[in-house]
Amino acid sequence: MSARGGGRAARWILVVGAFAMLALIGGRPVAAQNGEGGGFYNAAVPAVAPQHVKQITLVARDDYVQEIAPGVRLSLWAFNGAVPAPVIHVRQGDSVRVTFVNKGAAAHSIDFHAATTPWNVWYQPVAPGKSLTFSFVASHPGVFMYHCGTPPAFMHISSGMYGMIIVDPATPLPPAREFGLVESEFYTRPGAKGLYQVDAQKVLDVRPDYVVFNGIANQYQDHPLVVRAGERIRLYVMNAGPTLFSAFHVIGWIFDRVYVDGNPANALQGVQTYTIPPGGGATFELTITQPGQYPFVTHAFAFTGKGAVGVIKVVPAK
Ligand SMILES: [Cu+2]
To answer: What is residue 11's predicted lDDT score, i.e. its pLDDT?
Structure first.
């Protein structure tokens, strides 16, 4: 059994900003990154040159354990030891070279929604102990899912094999305080040794026990996202599913803009709630001028109380 329990590895909030040139953003404790001074997007980061290559290595394992809610240690499968997997961050035009290593006991695979590449060549199951390497060009900006697609895909996704790749537009967006949120569901049943297991029947019946942001129920109630009044907030939100639609909403404010699929060419204005399908993403921009607490939720209220609540804490401007 993996030694990495307790969910610490997934307790990150991705703060994309100053790390824009890093291909892979690893996990850090949320409390360490949500304070002031973290997370400003650095608009000075230049667009990468054509033919710039980002190397990504993803290691699949199926012996991972994460504490998804207090006392609920769930047996999962994971990429790079976290659910969701680490955020991958590239810029439009980058060439992304992916090395996928299967250190699990079962066949796994990789499917990048940011790629345009033949499914029957690169997205096929990789046997235990094997690896593959392929490249794609991040042609479209956006907020994309990547995941294991090995049949039955609903089991591989509900077991945790997913992550978000953000493709920045070639022309950088204005500076903002940025956060990334991956919504997903967990379907559980008690198992041996105090561990919970994924319940396949509940997955098919769509009876989730938890609906969460970044792999842990209600974690941003306990550790709010901290912003200053009047600063632009940018939320990259991806819905990993496997099945529920997200009705993403911030209680107490209105989105100035929503970029459908995270592409600035698809801009909506003045939006209260926006639907993100399983396997989809969106970028949300808002500027909250009044200090206070502003919960973010899925407004599908049968599921909100299952863990899909966080808080944006707005502190006074300097
Ligand atoms: Cu898999």
So the answer is: 37
